[in-house]
Amino acid sequence: MRILVVGGGTGGTIVANNLARRLSAEIRARKVRITMLSASDKHMYQPGLLYVAFGQMAPDALYRDQASLLEESINFHVDPAVKFDLDSKCVTAKSGKVHQYDILIMATGSRIVPETIPGLAEGAESFYTEAGAVKLFKKLREIQEGTVAVVVGVPHKCPIAPVEFVFGLHDYFKARGIRDKIKIKYHYPIGRIHTIKEVATWAKPEFDRMGIEYETLFNVSEVDVENQVVKSEEGTETKYDLLVAIPPHRGMEVIEQNNLGEGGWIPTDRFQLTMTGHDDVYVLGDTTNLPVSKTGSAAHFEAEVVAENIASIIKIGVPVREYDGKVYCFIETGHDSATYAMFNYQNPPDLKTPSKPMHWFKMAYNQMYWTSVRGLL
To answer: Does the predicted TM-score (pTM) go above 0.85?
Structure first.
């Protein structure tokens, strides 16, 4: 049985490690072989980028060697997939090597596409890449007064991030003693300040308390870089001194190039996590088109379901679990407090009052992630 994992992010790494342990006897007996194809030999802890943007974490703290996070029985190749032939059950890597599979797991992730909005790449800062987070931190250090505008593109991963960033901005400028000289204006594309109704209901009074201005139904149409104005499709505009964007996302180009899913999102069964029309192909994390948040926690919970089901199919012939849409998101509410949102397909989140202990739990998780991604937590 040949299991091929494409993608070495959170979902791919957890599912591969989980399978390697569940199927250790079968691997030793050479009845199962697990192979991973990744675009990089490094693994990034992506939530850490928010801390980099505020000078709370050094960029090199975000990375580990991918091989060090994998069980020794996994055949790991830094050789990204470029061509998929699902009918022939084979994947061609960049090197030209062809990998045959019996079970394929797609965990290719997503990418930012600020270039899809005129002026956004040139005029806005972002913390969704290492270089972007470092540049944004330098900009935040320099600004002394004026308007910091935050705009949100859709779709985007980590839907809580815009709210966390606004809390962080408030505390950052407060600590510098210039909060009264900075206007923070937040823009969101739908008719409330967050897509999750319960988060919007909780965050609105918090924004009011902090003196955050906000405009809803603001879908960015273009950025006038020269005049420092961001414009909306609805006909409104905001003049800014610093523009910070949560850039729109798409799935990875290889998914679009192989016509596996519109926008790079693969059509996925919401319970079994199999690709529509292909029961031997599983999809995880950002790569799916599921109506759940594109977060590391969703990828984690999905990976556990997929690993348990694949192992069960190999051992007894049938899957044993369904994915219930579970997501758990920490929400940093400044530099010394946090809360969380936990929800699934059936149950919306019930947000608690932010607290220091929850913040320290999040800080501890930043380190525990490396244990988590190995599938040990």
So the answer is: yes
